[in-house]
Write a structure and sequence with these properties.
mainly beta; Thiol Ester Dehydrase, Chain A; ten-stranded antiparallel sheet; 10 strands
Length: 236
């Protein structure tokens, strides 16, 4: 089984005011690693994007021991799990250059038709990714349970948040969460995060955001006339 490996030096653009890796940047690194590894495995844009097929994220999860910091060298690893019919599991590990475990993550990906936005059967397009279990995986992300909220506001998706799939990029949901929830701005360290993408948010759509926090456990959701996402965050 092939494993993706990348060495990264964290720059000022990657970190927050506490000099720790931004949550959104963490998930951008994971997303980009997924794309690059998929291309290395021979399943690049000629198999998908150029044929009107899009890779989309359904769920993500991360367990964080310590967020890396500014000017730190880190090693990102990623590998695919065994394909489950329409779902493509993927796992991630982040370590220091010396081998200290920083975090582990998992995600569920799928393929959709660019025009209909419906899930497609990968075998019809020759998309095959061999995966295996290494023993280093964390559990796959699951549905995020709805929790009580005390705050709400409207949010309209701006142009700068929209990616090549034509919807709000997954990394932007983490910026949105930390702008709403005060824990990050207060310097609290993230311990665990799980997000469920239920429907896409397109340019100009207005979401009703609801969130709440209790003893370090936070919940944030967004919806239009349909649910868009749910996110659970745990802080140390």
């Amino acid at each position: 089984m092939s494993e993706y490996r990348e060495e990264i030096l964290l720059r000022s653009k990657d970190v927050d005011m506490f000099r720790r890796l931004r949550t959104s940047e963490l998930f951008r690194l994971l997303q980009e690693a997924s794309i690059r590894h998929t291309e290395q495995l021979g399943m690049g844009r000629d198999k998908t994007l150029d044929r009107g097929i899009l890779w989309v994220l359904l769920m993500q999860r991360a367990e964080i021991t310590r967020m890396p910091e500014y000017d730190e060298h880190i090693v990102l690893k990623s590998w695919p799990g065994k394909t489950m019919h329409l779902l493509f599991p993927r796992y991630y590990s982040l370590e220091t250059a010396a081998g200290e475990q920083l975090l582990k993550a998992s995600a569920l990906w799928s393929l959709v038709d660019e025009k209909t936005r419906k899930v497609v059967f990968p075998e019809r397009y020759g998309v095959v990714i061999d995966g295996a279990e290494t023993g280093e995986e964390i559990a796959m992300p699951g549905a995020v349970a709805k929790r009580e909220t005390v705050c709400e506001r409207d949010f309209t998706v701006p142009y700068s948040f929209v990616d090549l799939n034509g919807h709000m990029n997954n990394t932007r949901y983490f910026d949105l969460a930390e702008d709403c929830i005060g824990a990050a701005a207060a310097g609290k360290e993230l311990k665990e995060i799980c997000v469920e993408y239920q429907n896409e948010a397109r340019l100009g759509e207005t979401l009703l955001l609801r969130w709440g926090e209790e003893e370090g456990n936070c919940f944030l959701s967004g919806e239009t006339e349909r649910p868009v996402f749910r996110m659970g965050l745990k802080y140390k």
